[in-house]
Amino acid sequence: MTYQETLDYMFTQLPMYQRTGKAAYKANLDNTLALDAYFNHPHKNFKTVHVAGTNGKGSVSHSIASVLQKSGLKVGLYTSPHLRDFRERIKINGKMISESAVVDFIANHKAKFEELKPSFFEMTVALAFEYFALEEVDIAVVEVGLGGRLDSTNIISPLVSVITNISKDHTNLLGNDICDIAKEKAGIIKPGVPVVIGERQEFIEDVFKGIAHERESNILFAEDIYEFRDSKITAGKQELNFFSVNQEEEVLIECDLLGKYQQKNIRTAICALEELKNQGLYISEEHIHSGLSQIVKETGLLGRWQILQENPKVICDTGHNVAGIKEIIEQIGMTDYRKLNVVFGMVDDKNTDEVLSLMPKEAHYYFTRASIPRALNEIKLQELANAYDLRGKTYSTVVEALNDAKSDSEKEDLIFVGGSTFVVAEVV
C-alpha cells in the first residue's frame, strides 16, 4: 500500500475515536496487552514520562520534551490527536515518524491487526512504542489519550507521572462525577513512582493523595513548589515570573507559548523536570530556559493560542471543554480589538449548553463544522447558540467560514477560530 492507502486503512478499518467517538472506545487493556506481547514489550527499552489530565497535557508534554531535547537526549514524543498529519502523533526530537515507517508497520503486521481488531488508538500506541524502541530513544514523553486507568498508554512504568488538572470532559465515557473522573486519571499513578499534580483542586486533592499513599508514590503539587507572580508578553514571547518556595528565589522563564493558561502548564513541566533531575537525568538551568523558550521550534506544537495572521489578527486555540473555553474567553478579554468575529464549531458528544453559555454575546459568529462524522451540524449548532443570544451565519466548511470572517473584518478586528480541536486542525 502507498502511504495514503495505509492512512485510509487506518482511518476507515480501525475504530477511531477522533472520528466516531464512543463506539471506538475500549474499556479494557486486552488488545493493548496482546499487542505489547506480540511486539515483545518495546516500551521496556526506553525510559518514559507519563502525562494525563483534562486540559494542558499536550502543552506539558511538548514542554518537557523540548527541554529534554536541549539536554542532549534522544526524545520520543507521543501525543494525540493530530491536527494536520497523522505523523504528528509520533515524533523523535521534533521530527515526525517517516511515511515509510508507518507503511511498513501496517504492511508487516496487518494480519495480526485483523486477528485482534484493535482500535485506531491501540494500534497507534503499538506503532509509537515499537518505533521508539527501534530508533533507540533515550526517553519518551507519552501523553494519555483519554482518561488514564484504561488508556492504552497505561502499560508503561514511567520515571514520573504527571496529572495536569481535572474538569468535566468525555463524561459519556468517564462519568459526570468529578471525583470519578479524577480516579480514572489517577490510574496512571504507579507504585513507587512520583506524581506531579498541576493544580490543587478542591475535592480532588484527597483522591490523588489517597491513591498515591496506597501506591507509596511521592505526590507533589506544582503550586506548592512554584508560586506564580506575574507575566507579560514581549517580542513574541511570554515572560513568566515564579517564586521557588524551596530555593526562596525568583525564577524567570521565557516561553514561546503565548496563552495565559500556559502559566500553569509551564510550572507543571518545571516540577516534572525537577523530578527527572532527582532521578539522575542531567538537566541544567540552561536546558530548561532554552527548551521552554523554543517549544514550538523544537517540537512543532500547533494550535495553542496560535496567531495565524495580523491585520486582522486571526488566532486559533484547541481548547474545547468548559475549563478550556473559560481560559480562552479570559485571554480574548485581555486582547485589544475593535470587533470580535468567532469561527466556531463543536463535536456532538460535548456539553454544548455549558460551553455556549460562556461564549461572548457581543461577538458575531460563523457557525461551522469540521469534516469528521462527530462534528455537530452547523445549523443545529446555530439553533442551540441562539438560545444563548449568540448570533451569526452558518457554513458547511471551516475554510468557507474563515474566509467570510476575514472578508467581514477590518484590520483592527479579532477573529478567533475554535470550539473544537478539529475546527482548528483545518486552519493551522
What does this structure look like?
- Belongs to the folylpolyglutamate synthase family.
- It is an enzyme of class 6 (ligase).
- Residues 51-272 form the Mur ligase central domain.
- By secondary structure, this protein is of the alpha/beta class.
- The protein has 2 domains: 3-299, UDP-N-acetylmuramoyl-L-alanine:D-glutamate ligase; 306-426, Mur ligase, C-terminal domain (Protein-Tyrosine Phosphatase, Chain A, Alpha-Beta Complex).
- The chain is 40% helix and 19% strand.
- It contains 18 helices and 17 strands.
- The strands form 3 sheets. Strands 4-3-2-5-1-6-7-8 form an 8-stranded mixed beta sheet, with helices on both faces.
- β15 (364-367), α16 (378-386) and β16 (391-394) form a beta-alpha-beta unit.
- The mean pLDDT is 93.
Layout of helices and strands, plus pairs?
Elements: H1 3-13, H2 17-20, H3 30-38, E1 47-52, H4 57-70, E2 75-78, E3 90-92, E4 95-96, H5 99-116, H6 120-134, E5 139-143, E6 160-163, H7 171-174, H8 178-185, E7 195-197, H9 204-214, E8 219-221, H10 222-225, E9 226-234, E10 237-244, E11 249-255, H11 262-278, H12 285-293, H13 295-299, E12 306-309, E13 313-316, H14 322-333, E14 340-344, H15 352-358, E15 364-367, H16 378-386, E16 391-394, H17 398-407, E17 414-418, H18 421-425
Parallel strand pairs: 1-5, 1-6, 2-5, 6-7, 7-8, 13-17, 14-15, 14-17, 15-16
Antiparallel strand pairs: 2-3, 3-4, 9-10, 10-11, 12-13
Helix pairs in contact: 1-5, 3-6, 4-11, 4-12, 8-9
